[in-house]
Design a protein that fits this description.
This protein is of the alpha+beta class. It has a single domain, classed as SET domain (Beta-clip-like). It has 2 helices and 12 strands. The strands form 5 sheets. It has a 3-stranded antiparallel beta sheet with strand order 3-9-8, with no helix packed on it. It has a 3-stranded antiparallel beta sheet with strand order 4-6-5, with no helix packed on it. Strand 5 and strand 6 form a beta hairpin. About 30% of the residues are buried. The structure holds S-adenosylmethionine (SAM). This is SET domain-containing protein.
Amino acid sequence: MKPSREGYKPSYPAFIVVFTPGEFSSSLKAQKPFTVGEVMAPLEGLTKAPKAYTSVQCGPGPNDHIELNSDLVYINHSCDPNVAFDLSSPDSSDWHIRALKPLEKDTTLTYFYPSTEWDMDQPFKCECKSTNCLGNIQGAKYLSKAELDARIWINPWIKQLVADRDRKAPGS
Ligand SMILES: C[S@@+](CC[C@H](N)C(=O)[O-])C[C@H]1O[C@@H](n2cnc3c(N)ncnc32)[C@H](O)[C@@H]1O
């Protein structure tokens, strides 16, 4: 579920949704600056949910998906992201988003979807326009270890799933 434009009330004072015509064209902007490594927001109000284009994977299993139930669902993917979704702690109250770069006010927030997602419900042709854009984004399952290692932050279950895949089918 996504917060809608009608009666919109920001979930976090530090962020604002930019509603844009088109089903998947909206985005989330910072309302204040952040420093590198700063925790920008805790992930609160999460619910377990089936995999969907709005869900975030939180572990290696088929049922390890949560809905954010907040404006954070509007953070788009970039192959050169400025935000990390860190769900690495065994204690879910420590899960958070963190700045990967210095962020000015009004910066559009992005994260690298394969840093959480193994095999995505809704693949798409990436429009991030970064120099290291990977093209089709379908999840980490479809990327090489080198492509994942080139990113600043990847959650531990994705690293483990890649290691398991490459051990079973070396060189493929
Ligand atoms: C959770 S939504 C993110 C918010 C979305 N932009 C919206 O307005 O609902 C994920 C979807 O946004 C779109 N999206 C996110 N990042 C994108 C990107 N870099 N290039 C193209 N589409 C993107 C895709 O349709 C994707 O399935």
